[in-house]
Every structure is written in structure tokens, then in C-alpha cells.
Amino acid sequence: PPGRTQCRRGLEIGDMPDPSDTAAPSHSADSVTRPATEDRLASALQRHFGFDYFLPGQRKIVETVLAGRSTVAILPTGGGKSLCYQLPALLLEGVTIVVSPLIALMQDQVDQLHARGILHATALNSSLSRAEIEQRFQQLAEQRLKLLYVAPERFAAPGFIDLLTRVSVSLFVVDEAHCVSHWGHDFRPDYLYLRSAITSIQPKVVLALTATATPAVRREIAVQLGLIDPFLLVNSFDRPNLFFSVVPCTTKAKPETMVALLQGISGSCIVYVARQRDAEELAALLNQHEVKAVP
């Protein structure tokens, strides 16, 4: 289907190492996607999302979460992280809490779910009126929600954690989980307090997702969130359509080399330069050679 890609290399899966370990043991796995069968997960995937197969790593994450084991998953951008919690959320009893750092990301996820007919999903954020927030609190208290997106700062709001302790939280998802690491929390300090929230709420399972985590950061995510014996899955970041190359040339020959390169490219292209003046001069040169460009 459009928008679905396959990775060429395998997955790194296994148990999270002890924080004192210097290397993470893992087991290799085949990354080839399986065609949908009439099993429960494949049927639910087709019914709710219209997909015929899982992307690499998705099925394993979903199966592990449904089995009740907390998981740290590292998937590249475009690797289908959201489905890894959206599908379990629809299959589990109770509500799934998704911690997301940006209002735009929350709203985009909710809009996409609503477009698929999954209407028991909503977000709590600072753009809402007091009446809208109270309405969502009521839906949560009456357990009429399956997915609730919140910012990490929401857990500091009076009464919010207390409300969550009175409902059944089946899954607690930390998106952009690298923000709990020693450098990421400078971006959003409230990620550091999620462990306390998890301890109070006692969700049945925790899923931490990110596209950015070294082995050390993966271990720190598990420690900071208080995860005991979490499952680890690291997907391949190999992108067959991306590559690095170097074209040697003198400084004087750079403009004509750039023109020659861009004349051979079909479609759009971005060229980075050091200064605004460089961008303007290069754009003028490219236009002179009938390569449409704007600075």
C-alpha cells in the first residue's frame, strides 16, 4: 500500500541489559514483513487501519505489549511507531495514555484516528478551553476513551494523576522517550517525573518509543521510567533511497560542479550553503543555466 516501505536489514531484539552491562545482548530476527493471515492481530490491523501486513518490528512490539511486558522500541521516523500502541489500545480493556511532547503531533494523531472511524480518542492540551478539558475529564472518568494523548506537563496538574488512579489504564506510552535521558529532558524537564506518575497510576504495561537512542540512552530510558526487565526492539535504520557521497573539487570549481550535479537531478532538491549571500548567488547561477532555483 502507498506509504509503506520495507527495510533491508534485520531487527535487534531481546532483553534490556542490566544498567551495569557495557553492551546490550540481542538476538537477530528477519525483518521481512509477513503477509496478513486470518489471525487476530492481522484481522484487527485490516479492520481498524486497512493495512494488509505489519511493518518490520510492529507485530513483535504489539504481541509483547499485549502479553503484558513493558517494552523499549527504537523505530526510525516513518517506521510506524504510532500503530504499535494504537492497535493494542483498541484490543486491551481500559484506556491507553500517550505522552507526547507537541500539540500538533497529538492533534494529527487524533485527527487520523477519527478519520478511520476510531472516535474514542482525544487529547488534553493547553489549546483547549476549560469546558473542553472538563468534558474530556468526564469521558475519562466514565471510561469512554480508548486513547488519551497528553503532554508530560499534564501530570503536574492538580487531580490528574488521582483521576487516572480511579480508571483502568491498560497501557502507558511514552513517545519521544529519549527526552527522559540526561540530555533530552533539557527540552522537556517534565519527562523526568513520568516515573513517579507511572508508579502512582500502575498501568498494566509501559511502552517507550523513540527514533533516537544510543545503547546508553536505551538503558537510561528503562531506568528513568522504572521499567523492570523490559523487552528491547531496535529496528533497522537502513534506507535504500538515502546515501552519502563526496565529489572532490576545488573551491573555484564548486559552482560549476554544483550546476552539473543539479542538471542531472529530476525532482526537488535542497542545497545548504553557509551564508545568505551564497544562497542568492547560487540560485542566480542555477537559473542562468535553466535550473529553477530560489534562495
Topology overview:
Elements lengths: L10 E5 L11 E3 L10 H10 L8 H9 L4 E4 L8 H9 L3 E5 L3 H13 L5 E4 L5 H12 L5 E4 L9 H6 L3 E6 L19 H8 L3 E6 L4 H10 L6 E4 L19 H10 L12 H13 L7
Parallel strand pairs: 3-8, 3-9, 4-6, 4-7, 5-6, 7-8
Antiparallel strand pairs: 1-2, 1-9
Explain how this protein is built.
The protein is α/β, with parallel strands linked by helices. Helix content is 34%, strand content 14%. The chain has ten helices and nine strands. It has helices spanning 40-49, 58-66, 83-91, 103-115, 130-141, 160-165, 194-201, 215-224, 254-263, 276-288; strands spanning 11-15, 27-29, 71-74, 95-99, 121-124, 147-150, 169-174, 205-210, 231-234. It has a nine-stranded mixed sheet with strand order 2-1-9-3-8-7-4-6-5, with helices on both faces. Strand 7 (169-174), helix 7 and strand 8 form a beta-alpha-beta unit. It is elongated, with a radius of gyration of 23 Å.
Short account of what is shown:
Helix 7 links the parallel strand 7 and strand 8. The chain has helices at residues 40-49, 58-66, 83-91, 103-115, 130-141, 160-165, 194-201, 215-224, 254-263, 276-288; strands at residues 11-15, 27-29, 71-74, 95-99, 121-124, 147-150, 169-174, 205-210, 231-234.
Distance from N terminus to C terminus (CA atoms, Å) equals 36 Å
| Mean pLDDT reading | 87
Q: Strand percentage, roughly?
A: 5-15%
Radius of gyration: 23 Å
| Total beta-strand segments | 9
Shape: elongated
List keywords for this structure.
single chain, 295 residues, alpha/beta, 9-stranded mixed sheet, elongated, disordered N terminus
